[in-house]
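Possible regression after last week's pipeline update?

I re-ran a chain I had predicted before the update to compare outputs. Posting the input and the new output here so someone can diff against the archived version. Not blocking, just want to make sure nothing changed silently.
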Amino acid sequence: MPRPRLKIGERGKTTHQKMEDGTWKAKASYRDVKGVKRELTARAKSKSRAETALNDKWHRLSKQIINGRVGTESITLSAVFDQWFEHLERRSERTGKPTMRSIYDDRLVVNNHVLPRAGEWAMDQITVGMLNEMLWSIPGKDGSLMATARRAQTIMSRLCAYAVSHELLPFNMGRETDKIEYTSPPPKVVEPEELGAIREVFRAWCDHPTRWRTPILDILDLMLATGCRIGEVLALTWDKVHLEDDVAWVMIDSSTGYVPGKGMAIGPTKNRKSLRIALPDFAVTLLMRRMTSQIVESEYVFHTSAGNPYYLSQIERSVKWAMSPAPHLQHIWQGGFRSHSLRKTVLTAIEREHGLAAAAAQGGHSKEYITEKFYVAPNLATIDHTDAIGQLITMKSPVVATGE
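New output (post-update):
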């Protein structure tokens, strides 16, 4: 005879297990307010203490299931976000994940889009429907801010998971919201003639006689030579440059970043990988020239007059100034510097010549579909197999019977 099904708010039989470290684990199943069967566990030094801890945990949880989250009526969503971000920052300091930059970007989305709409909501009043309405109020009628709404949904799911672990919510409501579908636009690459025009504009700006010029042309060329992110190029140091080998190469294993309240920071790359990348001849010439013509000693290949690495904002500002006399080129980066388009240009060129696997390896991607979806431009070349298809039908004039 099958075991009777647990009812909502009902707990099953407690079982015990002695762990390898000598502690005891007590566990029991229960059914939450949505009817989902879940497992409750507790550990202690002895079997009886583990069961006592499990009973205490169940006592608190059952009150939430039966009485509707007692004790959370005075806690607002804004307060929980503050606690959660503090938790993420402590974890980032210990493990490096998530990065401080990622936390900073999440805070911007929360402060600009979530809290103005839902910051004063009490935790005991939040429903899945309320979250749905809040999230779907972010994108505009023209489809703008869809990516922001999608990110806000991901943040809410993570926040709700944190709230569940602190018994502020009975289940992850963020995970139950309607999926916000966002189709990213196809990767845009810089065409060869556009790239040539940009390089000429950058060269004219860099050659202007002033005390110090940001080397935006050399930075652009090294990005094209490696396919790296701009932060990885700005963090490149001379000890990672190897021009003496038969095939010159650079080691890419760090990136610049901005830490709120602290400023510039050099940390690992986005995917925490190290890449050994061979250099084409034009990049070798570029690096040799910079190595032999340094005015200020610095460990960084690209550095300010004080010997420090550049901030990304400094590069963006210099690009804006350099391109201001060329309004006919503004459409390429939509009025701003989109450095990632250079990375997409490089990976697309490699994919066309050597295949998707080679492009993924150059980009440091563990999965080829990431490269294909976000970095390689669609191949719009005409498919021409007319020579083979033409043999299927011979276009001879039909013989017409005369009836004679």
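Follow-up from reviewer: compared with the archived run. The beta strands are 15-18, 24-31, 37-44, 241-242, 249-252, 255-259, 263-267, 275-278. Marking as no regression found.
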